[in-house]
Amino acid sequence: MAKKLVIKVTAGTDAPERCSQAFTVAAVAVASGVEVSLWLTGESSWFALPGRAAEFELPQAAPLPDLIDSIIAAGRITLCTQCAARRDITEKDVLAGVRIAGAQVFVQEAMTDGVQALVY
What we know:
The chain is of the alpha/beta class. It has helices at residues 16-31, 64-74, 81-86, 103-110; strands at 4-9, 35-40, 76-80, 98-101, 115-119. The chain has one domain: DsrEFH-like (Hypothetical Protein Ychn, Chain: A). Strand 1 (4-9), helix 1 and strand 2 (35-40) form a beta-alpha-beta unit. The two termini are 20 Å apart. This is DsrE family protein.
């Protein structure tokens, strides 16, 4: 099993099933003891803001706020620097435990030995 799982989620309310799948995989991996780094890019960027995940609904899916809480508690959530800038999101705007970082950090995480990377 990979020592670390890096997941990049590009979908938000525009593709709810793909979005939910990324958060679900991340939360299950965290619960299984895997080190998880979830990257929010594109439309998923909005879920870095307080209250936004509560607006997300998908039948038969775990509530997004619960998934985010579990990922932050034992993993890491990162908002893409450029995606944040395009949406006027700053460090002071995001949920506690969410960092903003760029492509260089993503590549560094994804290229580490023992890492498995997924894109949704």
